[in-house]
What does this fold into?
Amino acid sequence: IKYINGIYHRKSIKVIMDTLDDIYQDMGVDEKSRFKTFSFSRRRIAVFFGSSNMIVIWIFNIFPLIMMLRIYLTANVVVYLYPFFFWWPFDNTKYFVSTYLYQIYCGQIATFQMVRKFQCFENYFHEFPFKLIFDVLYMMILAQVTTHFRHLSESFKNFIEELSQRNEMTWKHKQRFKYLVEVHKTLNQQCDSLNRIFGLPLLVHVILATLIICFTGFLVVSQSEVFLLVQYFSVLAISLIHTFFLCWFGDKIEEE
It folds into this structure.
């Protein structure tokens, strides 16, 4: 749902990103330096989330092979295990290697829906070492918005302090105040657009994440097999981390 929604609204998403970039380009040199300082920590969060997704998907890709090897060495029996549960209209044991590789490919596509394959996003995420999923795209936009709000708050504080020292509002101050108000209005409009674009997919995500956390938590408690326990726990951890970051970014927007 999130992937289809992102494709459907890709032009609107690009407008939001272009608008945020225009605000950044209008800043002075010192303001850009402060903005980059604010933005750095939040970009690291998005990189961490994308990296953790990659780790989880490769745990599922590799662990079945380890379990097959352990069963063969202990019981001298060949058992065919796969990363995910699939139904095949043929005897997949005859084509085990190709079937296994196909599951790895499907897992990569399902987990890392490629944002950068859309040309309109290439200029924004060319420095990232992995293909971005739309969840990370949403977090990156939220990070930009919250950073802009924080920078705007600092700019208003500096403006008030400067004005209180001079005890008069010059034409330059009026223009500065007008610019800050316009930026605040623009950021509010982008927040409304984000809510309109991502509201439904995030609602579905929260519902599904709740079910995943409950069912996976039960499997973690009831499971005694070490390798399966690691797999289930990794899914539980990434679901909790994902939900936490979405809530954290949303809270930062409200706070700023």
